[in-house]
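Residues pack. Consider this:
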Amino acid sequence: MASLTATAQTAHLTFKGIPIDGNLTTFVNKLKQKGFTVLYSEKGVTMLKGDFAAIKDCTVVVTEHESKVVNRVAVMFPSKDKWATLYNQYSDLKQMLTEKYGEPAEVEEKFQNHSYELDDNDKMYEVRMNRCLYYCDWVLENGVIELRIQHETTLGCRVVLVYIDAENESKVRSSAIDDL
């Protein structure tokens, strides 16, 4: 992931038009007004379900730092069983993000340790074995947006999109440094 610098920010990164700022309750209430429903909420993390970027049944995870400020929002798109559908979703989102934010600052799209051509079944196996490096990062003035293909044991193979607000992430980092 690209590093965030502690520069003066004029605006927070937004998610669905909502600035990634303020406390968890306020942010979640704004998402609920946009049609999301709460699945789980505990200790600075709330999971919601809803539609995002024209994709149904996404899980959105909002995290709040102990300083009571929201700093990250992650979208976990529905899991996929076939490489073609997983890759197409990743590619479509990458294209839309590029249209909105310009070319990504960092891109890696490969499978680790392979010198031969992989078919779709091989590619899904590699995703499940965590040997798939497909990600893009957009480094913006007010934060970072990360797009990834990843596998989690209980959640399956999916595309994940993470919004990290620079100003609030800087607060998290400052607090961590204070601990040292």
User: Anything to note?
Assistant: The first strand starts at residue 14 and ends at 15. The chain has a mean pLDDT of 89.
